[in-house]
Predict the 3D structure of the following.
Amino acid sequence: MAKIKKEDIKEFANDELAEKIKENQLRYRKMKFNHTVSPLDNPLSLRWLRRDIARLKTELRKRELEAAKNK
């Protein structure tokens, strides 16, 4: 699993960011459940995915604050 780079995140539109967040959260829940049942090959992938979700949410929130500030 590859980490999402900051440059890539900034290229996404707001609706694409929201879609990526939902998609990654669903994947995280599935991976966490599968890890509970049987160990993952690389348990650090859970951490990476969780941090990617945080990066996406941070960028989305930053854009929301900029939009509110500009109004």
About this structure: The two ends are 39 Å apart (CA to CA). The chain has a mean pLDDT of 92. Residues 44-70 form the longest helix (27 residues). Helices lie at 6-11, 14-37, 44-70.
